[in-house]
Amino acid sequence: MNASSQPLKISRAHAWLLASRPKTLPAAVVPVLVGSAVAAADGAFSFFPALVALLCALLIQIGTNLANDYFDFIKGADSEHRVGPVRVTQSGLIPPRTVRNAMIGVFVLTFILGLYLVSVGGWPILAIGVASLFCAVIYTAGPFPLAYVGLGDVFVFLFFGIVAVTGTHYVQALHWSMDALIASLPVGAISTAILVVNNYRDIDTDKVANKKTMAVRIGRAATRMEYRLLLLLAYSVPVVQSLRAGAPLWLLLPLLTLPFAYHVLRIVERSTDGSELNHALAGTGQLLALYGLLYAAGYYLA
User: Fold this and answer.
1) What is the per-residue burial (b if ≥16 Cβ within 10 Å, else e) of 204-236?
2) CA-based Rg of the chain, rounded to a whole angstrom?
3) Structural domain spans, the chain
4) For residues 298 and 302, what is the distance between their CA atoms, to the nearest angstrom?
5) Would you say 155 and 139 are in contact if contact means Cβ atoms under 8 Å apart?
6) What is the Cα–Cα distance from 66 to 73, expressed in whole angstroms?
7) Cα(278)–Cα(282) distance, integer angstroms
8) Please, what is the Cα angle at 47 between 254 and 27, to 5 degrees?
9) How buried is 251 (Cβ within 10 angstroms: 0-12 exposed, 13-18 middle, 19+ buried)?
10) Contact between residue 124 and residue 170 where contact means Cβ atoms under 8 Å apart
11) How far apart are CA 295 and CA 124, in angstroms?
12) Is 67 within 8 Å of 103 (Cβ atoms)?
């Protein structure tokens, strides 16, 4: 399949929905929910900064997805041999120039909304916003794109975990919090696990495209181990938190998702088939959503 054949017959609205990759959006929503929950536990929850932070996080995720769709096509990483979900540029559903312009528009809108957060939180939020937008672009663009040199995992853990959770807390509480930093670790771990499954599925096609993801660099066995370690980190954090004197046991609520996590892990461990790993990819996104909701609820109840 190539960009000129356009074999798929779907509506324009559906094509843009595919371009936004809705199954990846929990990676944008969960950090804001958890950061806001920590702020609420501190008695510092503020509705409008939380809402705008959520909108900015969603826009950054969508803009990153559009950039990935466009630049992967330009660089040849998305070809007719890909086994993942449909990519609108590679499949010819939306012209490359249109996807690029949409990406630019999304990032401009993010910057405009972010000015409100800067007015609330000052220069630390400005620094976070500029760094987030810059890294969202160079994730797949430029001479040394993060995703092509094996730094995608680090980018996701940092920006969709630590930066997003602590930044959301900061823009409401106006101070940095060790609790927010700790809470960011499981969020970053499961968010990174989503990328790990994606790259594990695409090892063969990424090798051909000279896309040296972490999975390509370390191989299948080590990538499976990386996935296990990320889940181990995610479930260890609330257990360690609960061991502190006077810690609320509500923080153990995410452990209710352990059976589902084990189910997804088994798929990753036993399969290299693209369609099965697509299910594991979707399942890891669902796991992040469930874990994040329960973790945030634990902080609110605490």
Assistant:
1) ebbeebebebbbbeeeeeebbebbeebbebbbe
2) 19
3) 12-301
4) 6
5) yes
6) 11
7) 6
8) 40
9) buried
10) yes
11) 26
12) yes
Say how far apart CA 134 and CA 54 lie, in whole Å.
19
The pair of structure tokens assigned to 176 is 């940095």
> Exposed/middle/buried for 79, CB within 10 Å: 0-12, 13-18, 19+?
middle
pLDDT tens-digit readout, 175-232: 999 999 999 999 999 999 999 999 999 999 889 888 899 999 999 999 999 999 999 9
Round to whole Å and give the CA distance between 101 and 93. Answer: 15
Residue whose structure tokens are 């936004």: 20
Residues 6+ apart with CB under 8 A from 18: 10, 85, 86, 88, 93
The model's pLDDT over 103-161, given as tens digits with 9 standing for 90+, comes to 999 999 999 999 999 999 999 999 999 999 999 889 888 788 888 899 999 999 999 99
> Is the four-CA dihedral 36, 39, 41, 44 of positive or negative sign?
negative
Q: Which amino acid is at 268?
A: V
Residue 206 contacts residue 199 (beta carbons within 8 Å): yes
- 227's tokens: 């996935």
Nearest to 128 by CA among 80, 170, 84: 170
Helix (H, G, I), strand (E, B) or coil at 86: coil
| DSSP secondary structure string for all residues of 230-264 | HHHHHHHHHHHHHTSTT--GGGGGGGGGHHHHHHH
Residue 154's Cβ-side half-sphere holds a number of Cα atoms within 13 Å equal to 10
